[in-house]
Amino acid sequence: MGLLDDLKKQADMVKSQQLSQQSMLQESIKLVEVKMNQTFVYLNDLFKQLSVLRPTNPMVYSIPGIGDFQNLGFAESFVDYRKKKINDKDHYDVIVFFIKWALPQNLVVERDMPATIQKVRDVLWSFGLKFTEEEVKKAGGGFQKMKFTIPHSITCDITITADHENARLVVKGKHLLRLGQEELRIPAEDVNEALLEEFAKMLIGQPTALRKYRS
Q1: Between 3-53 and 193-203, two packed helices, what is the crossing angle to 10 degrees?
Q2: Would residue 65 be called left, alpha or beta, if left means φ above 0 and alpha means ψ between -120 and 50 degrees?
Q3: What's the pTM?
Q4: Count of domains observed in the chain
Q5: Which of 31, 54, 58, 120 is found 20 to 30 A from 142 (Cα to Cα)?
Q6: Domain, as residue range, for 113
Q7: Nearest C-alpha neighbor of 134 from the set 161, 106, 156, 159
């Protein structure tokens, strides 16, 4: 076999690999599209039911060194999606949504030392929680303590991204399984009615099997 024949053989192998990769990617795009649509339809229906039932979230959100948020009630929710062009066709890119849990009363925390005052600020900032500060003075006019007023409100902001190349749905958000950021990587082939029910459990603060997908 001459050099040209050898190069032709190598080129044919490369072309075959490229066609195989393209075929796999197309199948992945189709699968992810179906599962993203199934997820959006499920979430849209879920939030309609929650807006009627307005359940109480059983999860306890612990704020280190400050206190706990618990027995929060459903306040509001929102869900939408964006698409993008892939091979001149519209496909799901992301699903974005939030759920807000709240109570009418506020949590009030008081600190009288500079270090402990700053620690409260740092913790609340790190979790993205809203708060106000009020400086309380002594009778003579000097500083006595700092009073923090923290609304009993937790907003779970979530984005589900269609990862076509890896045939999976990537869930990123805050305050899902606890206070703070979470990321779940779910193979598209795993998305079915049972998994979406587990996802719903997570969103309303119930025990869920989705923890195994944490990255």
Answers
A1: 50
A2: left
A3: 0.85
A4: 1
A5: 120
A6: 3-213
A7: 106
